[in-house]
Amino acid sequence: MAHAARQAKRIGPAAVLWIARAALDFVFPPTCPLSEEPVGQVGRIAPAAWARLTFLSEPVCDRCGYPFELDPGEIRVCAACRVRPPVVARTRSALAYDEASRPLVLELKHAARTDAVATFAAWLALAAGPCLREADWIAPIPLHPARLRKRRFNQSALLARALAQRSGKPFDPDTLGRRRDTPSQGGKSASGRRRNMAGAFAVRPERKARVTGARVLLLDDVLTTGATLDAAARALKAAGARAVDAVTLLRVIRPRDISV
Ligand SMILES: [Zn+2]
């Protein structure tokens, strides 16, 4: 053991890590988190699985990131955002939520596969663009402590930490808290989701100074109607945030329910 430690010291920690990883890759070759095909590097998506993913890109709604099929010209705000302007200034998402991309989040949520988090962080950085560059710090959508205990980890926090590491922006999972555990959003209308999330978040009073005047980038795994992000942004703005942007890994694409 002492000999191994001396040996490790001599060849350096980076080399030890490299050797450990190479040994692990030999025993458990890295596989694609979507198709389980072998891939050359941990976190890689196999080409066939990659081809099925729909990455979102311009032109999108300036506010919510909804992808326009055609260039909208001068008015770059979608109908839903004109009827009900979101609290979040700009939301951007990396991929469309569909049959091909859904397993990415399911695997992450159930902690079975977290090896692709660095890949996701690269996609999130690209999607967030100026929202990331202009952010003072990055906050994940928090889970209620009771849910966190049950699930053991928050997948949005995992993504936010990886994005922070990649970009050099501060990661802050503690300032925004969840005041109450909310019933599942599944099956609820847009207005039902808004009611469900109302008052769910609050800035911890002892951390208020961190929020005052700050531009915060929120991170969530999936955007459905934007009700969760808006509720979180409302809490941050009530505590003095200058602006709140958001980035999500996946985004449900469908005509949005603009009923009140
Ligand atoms: Zn919009």
Describe the structure.
The chain has 260 residues and is of the alpha/beta class. Helix content is 40%, strand content 13%. The chain is built from 12 helices and 6 strands. It has helices spanning 2-11, 13-27, 47-52, 79-83, 102-109, 117-128, 130-133, 145-151, 155-167, 190-197, 208-211, 227-238; strands at residues 91-96, 137-140, 176-178, 201-203, 215-223, 243-251. The strands form 2 sheets. It has a 4-stranded parallel sheet. It is globular. The relative contact order is 0.15. The mean pLDDT is 88. Bound molecules: zinc ion.
In what order do the strands lie side by side in the largest sheet? 1-6-5-2
- What is the N-to-C order of secondary-structure elements (H for helix, E for strand)? HHHHEHHHEHHEHEHEHE
Please state the structural category.
alpha/beta
**Helicity, in percent?**
40-55%
Strand content: 5-15%
Q: What are the distinct ligands in this entry? A: zinc ion
Q: In one word, what is the shape?
A: globular
Euclidean distance between termini CA atoms:
67 Å
Largest sheet: 4 strands, parallel
Residue-averaged pLDDT: 88
Radius of gyration using CA atoms only: 20 Å
Beta strands, count: 6
Flag low-confidence runs. Answer: none
Number of helices: 12
